[in-house]
Design brief:
By secondary structure, the protein is of the alpha/beta class. It has 2 domains: 211 residues, Vaccinia Virus protein VP39 (Rossmann fold); 37 residues, no CATH class. The protein contains 10 helices and 7 strands. It has a 7-stranded mixed β-sheet with strand order 3-2-1-4-5-7-6, with helices on both faces. The longest helix has 18 residues. It is globular, with a radius of gyration of 25 Å. The relative contact order is 0.14. The model has no long low-confidence stretch (mean pLDDT 83).
Length: 259
């Protein structure tokens, strides 16, 4: 069986196609998301924040990456995805870039940790290989014709959706992408969908090779319904705020009728 590392995968036409599609997809989802801090977990070769208005960007991974280019403003931190060295609710956007493919045993722990540091109304984006994709199915039939990197778990989308919802996040949508390999080495041309990508989006989206899921952290806030008589509460008297408001409204209505 042919061995495929993440480095050799990114150097192949399939890897370049995946990288270009994911950067374009993240640009569409993050272009209008404002905030103070954006976090990427895993897959340092991908820069999902190129079109993001958020300036403070953090990359957390458990491997050391090569030196970044001058246009890459991400602060690089060496840490585990399920033990982030960040405080609660401090990130407005989080991208889980193939974290599930590399560490499937930490699926729920990773999502829970991402939900912890995600700010209210924050956006979570998860990128992963499709378990029903054509590349995965081809490897099962022809093991010697391997495309995906070694150890790619390819977790079913239903399992990832369940983990996100269990962490208390609300699913919003997503994208299916990469149905074929683009032979063009120009990244701008690779992002343009070919005829097979257009047909796949319409007729068999679940057979894509890459999936993007988006979720949001929705918090429920309390709503005040009336004024509270704190003086009466201290004296031991029970006063209903709702009843008091209704009585005041009745008196004002009676006064209006008399006039």
């Amino acid at each position: 069986m042919r061995s495929v590392t993440w480095e050799s995968f990114l150097a192949s036409p399939a890897g370049r196609t995946v990288l270009a599609w994911e950067e374009g997809a993240c640009a569409r989802f993050l272009a209008n998301k404002s905030g103070n801090r954006a976090l990427q977990i895993g897959f340092g070769a991908l820069n999902p924040f190129a079109a993001s208005p958020i300036t403070h960007r953090i990359l957390i991974d458990d491997v050391v990456h090569a030196h970044a280019s001058e246009s890459d403003f991400r602060d690089r931190v060496l840490a585990q995805a399920d033990a982030l060295p960040l405080c609660d609710e401090c990130c407005d956007a989080i991208v889980l870039a193939h974290t599930f493919d590399r560490h499937p045993e930490k699926l729920q722990a990773t999502v829970n940790e991402a939900a912890r540091v995600l700010a209210p109304n924050g956006l979570l984006i998860a990128l992963f290989f499709n378990a029903m994709g054509s590349w995965t199915l081809r490897e099962k039939v022809f093991p010697s014709r391997k495309i995906l990197p070694n150890g790619s778990a390819c977790i079913p989308i239903l399992s990832i959706k369940a983990a996100i919802q269990k962490a208390g996040l609300s699913l919003e949508g997503g994208n299916f992408g990469v149905y074929a390999v683009s032979p063009d080495k120009n990244s701008a041309n690779v992002r343009l969908p070919g005829w097979l990508d257009k047909a796949g989006d319409r007729w068999w989206p679940t057979l894509s090779n890459v999936i993007l899921l988006s979720a949001r952290k929705v918090t429920v806030k309390t709503t005040l319904v009336g004024k509270v008589n704190f003086a009466a509460a201290k004296s031991g008297k029970t006063v209903s705020a709702t009843l008091k408001n209704s009585e005041s409204l009745k008196i004002s209505n009676d006064a209006a009728d008399c006039s």
